[in-house]
Write a structure and sequence with these properties.
It is a single chain. This protein is an alpha+beta fold and 212 residues long. It has two domains: 77 residues, no CATH class; 107 residues, Aldehyde oxidase/xanthine dehydrogenase, molybdopterin binding domain (Aldehyde Oxidoreductase, domain 4, 2-Layer Sandwich), CATH 3.30.365. 37% of the residues lie in helices and 17% in strands. It has seven helices and nine strands, in the order ααββααββββααβαββ. The strands form four sheets. Strands 5-6-7 form a three-stranded mixed sheet, covered by helices on one side. It has a two-stranded antiparallel ribbon with strand order 1-2. Strands 3-4 form a two-stranded antiparallel sheet.
Length: 212
């Protein structure tokens, strides 16, 4: 995004010199759909979606761009007001990260967190999905954080609105996998099929039988 402050004024100047509308010139160059944007492991990666053209159209309509650009640059006493357009990418969310926790015999869940903290408590709160899926109170969870010697998971950077999207999803995937494993263990030890068992209220129990 920092590059926008350098490139957008250049694009605006080019549009004026070429006599092209500022919205139109940006629309010509706007990415669409799963647009390519970066190299990942030597291969061209892509974003999951890009709706810049729709955003430009919507913004121009709501701002009344055609009406206001006609008045742009006109002097009113000692003031001259101008209007312009700028657009930027913004990374919202990320994928490909890990969730990690341990269920110990003391009945508590020990969640490993590699999330950086910017004062938002996301290093802990993003993991609340784990006890929610497993039917365990949050009060019975311990967060292991800030010490790489304690085996922390691969986590996203704390920036660009990525943390909740990436790490809550990772925690959900880990919790769902753990729930499946608990059901498989119950079926192996007590008989039946894994889907015959429920995980809730800090217990694994046969459906219809209630937690014990």
């Amino acid at each position: 995004m920092q590059g926008v402050t350098l490139m957008e004024p250049v694009l605006a100047k080019a549009a004026r010199k070429l006599g092209i509308d500022q919205v139109a010139i940006r629309r010509l160059n706007a990415p669409e759909g799963k647009a390519d944007y970066i190299l990942v492991d030597g291969k061209r990666g892509h974003c999951t979606s890009a709706f810049i053209k729709e955003a430009l159209d919507c913004g121009a309509e709501q701002f009344k761009w055609d009406e206001r650009k006609a008045r742009s640059g006109k002097r009113n006493g000692s003031k001259v007001r101008g209007v312009g357009v700028a657009m930027s990418s913004f990374l919202g969310g990320a994928i490909g990260f890990d969730g990690l926790f341990v269920i110990k015999p003391d009945g508590r869940i020990y969640i490993q967190s590699g999330i950086g903290t910017l004062g938002t408590e996301s290093f802990a709160d993003s993991h609340r999905i784990v006890p929610e899926v497993l039917g365990v109170p949050w009060e019975k969870c311990e967060i292991t954080w800030g010490n790489t010697s304690k085996n922390l998971p691969w986590s996203c950077v704390s920036g660009g609105s990525q943390t909740i999207h990436a790490m809550t999803r990772a925690g959900l995937a880990a919790a769902m996998d753990a729930k499946k494993k608990l059901q498989e263990i119950a079926a192996k030890d007590l008989g039946g099929k894994p889907e015959d068992y429920e995980v809730a209220n800090e217990r694994v129990f046969r459906k219809g039988g209630g937690p014990v």
